Amino acid sequence: MTASTMKPSSCCGCGELLDSTRVAEAAEFRKMKPKTKPRNPLLWVFDALEDDPRYVRRKLFSFDAAYLDGRLYLAVSAGNEPWNGLLVCTAREHHLSLRAQFPQLVSHQALGKWLYISQMHGEFESVAMDMARLAHRRDPRLGVESKVKMR
Fold first, then answer.
1. What average pLDDT score do residues 30-53 get?
2. Does some domain include residue 75?
3. Nearest 5°: CA angle at 124, between 43 and 46?
4. Position 37 confidence tier, pLDDT thresholds 50, 70, 90
5. How many domains does the chain have?
6. Alpha carbons 2 and 142: distance in angstroms, whole number
7. pLDDT value of residue 11
8. How far apart, in whole angstroms, are the C-alpha atoms of residue 49 and residue 10?
9. Residue 49: phi, psi to the nearest 5?
10. Computed over its alpha carbons, how large is the radius of gyration of the chain?
11. pLDDT of residue 146
């Protein structure tokens, strides 16, 4: 490109002169949409909690977590196993009771203090809805104190 084919322009009003190729590149860059994170497809699990005024949904690492009265009850994630389902936040002392009622629940392989059901499990939907109903009723076997300050 010769000096005669260059069209002076500035990219953003800063005064820096650009050739026509860089002007076109800058225009394309401005058209690009910012990347947005996909919405967690398992948020429907929390639908039973939506009408509760003390329900709050927050991010917890790669999870979306359900808090009631400031306590962490449930968390969902749609990642790779073992982060692909519902975590039931509970104390180990309640595992036997919950697993007797819901044998589909297993101790999470990385977070053994909590119970888990993969969304690949055939009964995932029914167990997830049951867990949300138990959380809504404040079943004393569910929920752990949160270290996160609720605003």
1. 84
2. yes
3. 25
4. low
5. 2
6. 72
7. 52
8. 53
9. -100, -15
10. 25
11. 80
Going by C-alpha positions, the residue among 71, 48, 73, 49 that lies closest to residue 63 is 73
The pTM (predicted TM-score) of the whole model is 0.73
User: What distance in Å separates the CA atoms of residue 45 and residue 66, rounded to the nearest whole number?
Assistant: 10
Alpha carbons 75 and 85: distance in angstroms, whole number: 8
Domain with 78, as residue range(s), is 43-145
Beta carbons within 8 Å of 107's beta carbon, 6+ residues apart: 95, 114, 115, 116
* Cβ(61)–Cβ(83) below 8 Å: no
Whether the pLDDT of residue 21 is over 80: the answer is: no
Residues 13 and 78 in one domain: no
In this prediction, residue 1 carries a pLDDT of: 47
User: Range with the lowest mean pLDDT among 1-5, 64-68, 133-137?
Assistant: 1-5
> Does 79 score more than 80 pLDDT?
yes
Q: State how far the Cα of 70 lies from the Cα of 145, in Å rounded to an integer.
A: 7
Go through the chain and tell me how many residues it has.
151
* 127 pLDDT more than 80: yes
Kindly state the helix (H) or strand (E) to which residue 27 belongs, with its residue range. helix 20-31
- Domain match, 85 and 137 both: yes
Residue 115 and residue 73 in one domain = yes
CB 76 within 8 A of CB 111: no
